[in-house]
Amino acid sequence: MKFLVIALTLLLWPKTGFGTDSDGAPNTPKPTDSRGFILPLITAVDGSSTALRYRNLHKPDGTISKDQFQYRLDLRVTLTFLKDGSLKLKARAMTGQGYDGSWNETGLRPENAQLNSDFNLRNFYLEYTPSKAWTFQAGALNNSPSNINAGGVLALDGDGWIDGARASYTDPQLWADAISVVVGQIDEYGNTSFFDRNFDGGANFIQIDIHGSLNRYTSLVAEMTQFDGVEYIRAIIELTTRDVVKFIDKVVVEEMLATGSKTHQGFALTVKKAFKSWQFTTEYSYKSDQISGMSPSKLPLEDLYRAGHQITIGADKKMGKDGSLGTMFVRYGKTLNGTDLFNSQGARFDFGYKIGLSRKKKKP
Prior knowledge:
- There is one protein chain.
- The chain is mainly beta.
- The chain has a single domain, classed as Beta Barrel (Porin), CATH 2.40.160.10.
- It has one helix and 18 strands.
- It has one helix at 2-12; strands at 37-44, 49-58, 64-82, 87-95, 104-105, 119-128, 134-141, 162-170, 178-185, 205-213, 218-227, 230-240, 250-258, 265-275, 278-287, 308-318, 327-335, 347-356.
- A 16-stranded antiparallel beta barrel has the order 2-3-4-6-7-8-9-10-11-12-13-14-15-16-17-18.
- β8 (162-170) and β9 form a beta hairpin.
- The chain is globular and about 60 Å long.
- 25% of the residues are buried.
């Protein structure tokens, strides 16, 4: 798969390049043939960010397992090849050492901590949009479809990848207004580099997401997944309540069931409230130890939410006009019970600051 993406990129790359004309004047992007190809320009870095946080983790017995400052760099680049913007190459490079981790240690504390400089290209794929309705992607894909907000407590970890292909269809006139199907491979959890993954062994992952709007207050996402022979069904119901209940803006309910055992299940309830420049979130989650983890038999779900019963409270504060100066964030998570490996960290506290690196659009 990676060789296909690289080969197509080189094939589409025009023979001319940036630089100067013969008279020394800077040249400008121009169409290079009748098909409408242009010099591939960086058209967007939207979503790019850098962040610094302090993390404190406590085990159930009260001992501290982590007391450290960490940093994160998430760099996203889009190259456009056609004048109509229908063919793009997208790349995402991040810090971190694993599928579900994107933070590096700063080495500031404790005394035995060391600076970690891991930074690798995780996602690298071609995207073709022949019409407003259809989008096709191939390569090392992001875990969430572009036309459906399928994130959540029981979603695939947002730091990871799917090596494969995805087709997405959108039609606002339909009740089921968006659908996405992806087929690919998820493995090599410790190998974050696109260029180092081997892509052998064939597809082991299939996922279908369908979004529908019941009314202006309620939306639904139905998700069907098959991973290494185990089938998962997830439902997300999102209720917009700000017009009904003034102190709650949104309520999200998630449920997941899987074949194999009645213990293969998960549930989450999320309540959100915005107040001026603050966004407050309270979450209750439950994940059985059979449904999530970094092993071939378990889905690599968001690692922020541990197996067992957990309460997570978060607050985000936008700094400057519309967050132009960044976002300050605070998170606290407490595992209520459980003694398995994934519950070895009983409580977690994060405090940090995130700065967006997206290119600002010039006013006309």
